[in-house]
Amino acid sequence: MSRPQDVPRAPLRPAPEPRAAVTGQREPEPPATGRNPRAREAQDPAGPAVTYLFAVTRTPPPDDVLAGVAGQDGGGPLRVLRAGSLALVVQDVPAEAFGKEALTQRLNDRYQLERCARAHHRGVQAAAGHGPVVPLPLATLYLSDRNAAEAVACRETAVHTLLDRLRGRTEWAVKVHAAEHDGDPSPAPEAGAENAAPGGRAYLTRASTRQRAQRARREGALARAHALDLELRRHVVAATRHRTQSEQLTGRSTPQLLNAAYLVDDGQRAAFGRALDGLRADERYRGLEIDESGPWIPYSFAQLDEAPDDSECGVGA
Q1: Are 229 and 241 in contact (CB under 8 A)?
Q2: Which of 23, 80, 277, 312 has a CA between 20 and 30 Å from the CA of residue 69?
Q3: Closest CA relative to residue 167, chosen from 121, 120, 130, 125
Q4: CA-based nearest residue to 224, from 261, 182, 195, 196
């Protein structure tokens, strides 16, 4: 399964500075050599390393599966790191290349960002092939294995709750666009309009009429897309709406009206598909193009930062 959006597609806006993803974890500072002896030995003579996190699971993939997964450039092989009853899929990566300044520069380069995002997704996907996972944000870093394990272990109860919620469920993406030709053309110009003076009152009136008609069509299409979203929510476990994408990103000449993700029970996939087909055939949604994709890893519903904190959960970098 792949990510329905954002990975590996690179955002148009500059990437934010990397941060630690688990509550209570401070932003990593440049580590001192020897803070993670096992990683240091693995990376020698390239220099000190830090621990890169891909995902949290309780059903880790076997070593031979991880051995065939290409991680972040310059890093060691992917491996499993135990954190209480949980397991992390991690990689040792060079501290110099993944320090704050170097990483920020890399994530603001579209080509490098895409490479980083693809590698991150490969690690998440490897973990997801053996059970539910909590994908961690791109560039989640800790100075040592110990700190990474402790930061996740102290959220153990919240992580198990989240994994239980995701078990047997996948994400489906639904994107709605205005149709290229929705059967509601702009008002026809009045007779003799071609002879009207460009600066005359008749021209301004016609221009104002066209603008009002276009605005009304846009508002009507948005209202129908909103109603469609509400209808789909009746058939899913959870739903979320993402920011709509620009025409530059979608490659379409019509605006995107809805960019939503739905968490669907695997046993209800057929019912969800039938609901979509019914909406496409429904005259109330005329003028909308409805595209779905999935099943995906439920990135949109696996946000560890939104889970409740376990008590006394604070781990330094």
Answers
A1: yes
A2: 23
A3: 130
A4: 182
Task: Decide if 175 contacts 291 (C-beta within 8 A).
Answer: yes
Burial, 276: exposed, middle or buried (Cβ in 10 Å; 0-12, 13-18, 19+)?
A: buried
As given in the structure block, the two tokens for residue 138 are 């791109």
10: nearest Cα among 114, 105, 108, 124: 114
Give pLDDT tens digits for 31-55: 333 334 444 444 444 579 999 999 9
**Cα separation values, 93 from 56, 96, 200, Å:** 18, 9, 68
pLDDT of 169 > 90? The answer is: yes
Cα 277–chain centre separation: 25
Kindly indicate the confidence band of residue 310, based on its pLDDT and cuts at 50, 70 and 90.
Answer: low
Q: Residue 46 and residue 243: Cα distance in Å, rounded?
A: 41
Helix (H/G/I), strand (E/B), else coil: 134? strand
For 222, the token pair is 């948005």
Supply the Cα-derived Rg of the chain in whole angstroms: 25
Nearest-angstrom CA–CA distance, 313 and 250: 41
For the chain, list the strands marked E by DSSP. Answer: 49-57, 79-83, 86-94, 133-142, 169-178, 238-241, 256-265, 288-296
| Total-model pTM | 0.73
* Separation of alpha carbons 202 and 208, rounded Å: 10
SS3 (DSSP) at 55: strand
Instruction: Compute the distance between CA of residue 231 and CA of residue 25 in angstroms, rounded to an integer.
Output: 40
Q: Tell which residue, 234, 255, 236, 233, has the closest CA to residue 245.
A: 255
